[in-house]
Specification:
The protein has 213 residues and is α/β, with parallel strands linked by helices. The protein contains 10 helices and 6 strands. The protein has a 6-stranded parallel sheet, sandwiched between helices. The radius of gyration is 17 Å and the shape is globular. Residues 141-206 form the HTH luxR-type domain.
Length: 213
């Protein structure tokens, strides 16, 4: 069962999402918060697997709340939901430790899939966000990666491009255990806290390209 915390200052929106989550097998809402500080407190008390975090909230915004929630060991995954598709929000949310970023007008099935995706430790970005990240990093001075092996570079490239674990395993013909080993080494070498941080590193190194198909 994936435990979900809802952090949003709009009661009607929280109610809509609660109905969706509680009505989906394998998901359950364990708490709600209407401010950033309340979200931090509820996350510590309820220990959810995933926090659905609004950006614009009173008391402490969602970016600051995300940074506090993800700072500890065994921290929950944070999926940022917002009506504002702005570059600054995307970058700040990901650097604060968010594992994903979706717009609030996403479809219910997409939101459910997103919860499962980030709960599994994968990064998730809305397609419009992915395109904006690619555009933003195009032409910038590229980040120089540490001494990665050829296979680690391949894995980082596919992670950056948004492929799931299963898709990467199939593309590289490797097992789940081998992929986990490669990802673990990448996290260590790039000093990244999670998969979303690997995506940022990949974009900064020029490895991000739009997916096709």
């Amino acid at each position: 069962m994936i435990r979900v915390l809802l952090a949003d200052d709009e009661p009607r929106y929280r109610g809509t999402v609660r109905t969706l989550v509680d009505g989906t097998p394998g998901l359950v809402v364990v708490g709600e918060a209407a401010t950033g500080r309340a979200a931090v407190a509820e996350a510590a008390r309820q220990r959810p697997d995933v926090v659905l975090m609004d950006v614009r909230m009173p008391d402490l915004d969602g970016i600051g709340a995300t940074a506090l929630i993800t700072a500890g060991a065994n921290a929950p995954r944070v999926l940022v939901l917002t009506t504002f598709d702005l570059d600054d929000l995307v970058y700040r949310a990901l650097h604060a430790g968010a594992s994903g970023f979706l717009l609030k007008d996403t479809t219910p099935p997409r939101l459910v899939d997103a919860i499962h995706t980030v709960a599994a430790g994968e990064a998730l970005l809305a397609p419009t966000v992915t395109r904006r990240l690619i555009d933003a990093f195009t032409g910038r001075a590229r980040r120089v990666l540490p001494d990665l092996t050829a296979r680690e570079t391949e894995v980082l490239t596919l992670v950056t491009r948004g492929l799931s674990n299963a898709e990467i395993e199939a593309a590289l013909h490797i097992s789940r255990g081998t992929l986990k080993t490669h990802v673990g080494r990448l996290l260590s070498k790039l000093d990244a806290r999670d998969r979303a941080q690997l995506v940022i590193a990949g974009y900064e190194a020029g490895l991000g390209q739009p997916r096709t198909g």
